[in-house]
Amino acid sequence: MSNVPLLELKKLIARAYAPYSDFKVAVIIRDRNGKVANGVNVENASYGLTSCAERNAVFSFVANGLEKPAELFLYTETEAFTAPCGACRQVLMEFDPNLPIVMINRDGEEKRVGIRELVPMPFGPEDLDDAK
Ligand code: THU
Questions:
Q1: Does the Cβ of 84 fall within 6 Å of ligand 1?
Q2: Which of 19, 59, 74, 78 has the fewest CB atoms within 10 Å distance of its CB?
Q3: Closest CA to 91 of 44, 57, 41, 47
Q4: How far apart, in whole angstroms, are the C-alpha atoms of residue 76 and residue 54?
Q5: What does the pLDDT look like over 66-83, one tens digit per residue?
Q6: 105-118 pLDDT per residue, tens
C-alpha cells in the first residue's frame, strides 16, 4: 500500500476529453517498480465510441511494457467515490484478479477495494480452457 499520487491525478484530469458529459476521470496504474501508466476518458461525438479512463490506462500500461499492475488510482472531481464501470471491471481483472483499486474523491479522501469484490462471478482466462 503506497501513497496516493494526488498532485499527478489533479494534473492528469485536466487532460480528460469529456465535452459531452463534463464528467472527467483520471487513472494512474502503478507497477511494483513504481513505474506508472496514465489514462483519462476520451469521449466522441458518436457517444458510444467513448473510451473510459480505466481501459485507456490499462492499454497504455501494456503498450509501455510495464510489469504486472500493483495498484490503480481512480480520481474524479465528485463528492462521491467513482467505481469502475462494468466493462472496465472485466478488463481490470485480466492481469490481476486481486488488483487493489483506490478511489479518490475531490476532497482527496480515499476508499480502497479489491477488483475481485466488484466482480462477484468473474469470467477469466481459465474459463477458456474448458472448451479445449
Ligand atoms: N467514465 C470513465 O472514464 N470511467 C468510469 O469508471 C465511469 C465512466 C467516463 C465515461 C464517460 O466519458 C463519462 O465518464 C461519463 O460516463
A1: yes
A2: 19
A3: 57
A4: 12
A5: 999 999 999 999 999 999
A6: 999 999 999 999 99
- pTM for this model (two decimals): 0.96
Q: At what angle do helices 86-93 and 53-63 cross, to 10 degrees?
A: 20
Q: Cell 517498480 belongs to which residue?
A: 33
Alpha-carbon distances, residue 23 vs 56, 66, 82, 86, 122 (angstroms): 16, 28, 11, 17, 28
Domain ranges for the chain, please list them: 6-131
Torsions phi, psi for 34 (to 5 deg): 85, 0
Domain 6-131 sits in CATH at 3.40.140.10
Q: Which of 8, 43, 54, 117 is catalytic?
A: 54
Question: Distance, CA 132 to ligand 1 centroid (Å)?
Answer: 36
All residues at 6 or more sequence positions from 6 whose CB lies less than 8 Å from its CB, including other chains: 75, 104, 108
Q: What's the full length of the chain, in residues?
A: 132
* Cell 462521491, residue located: 80
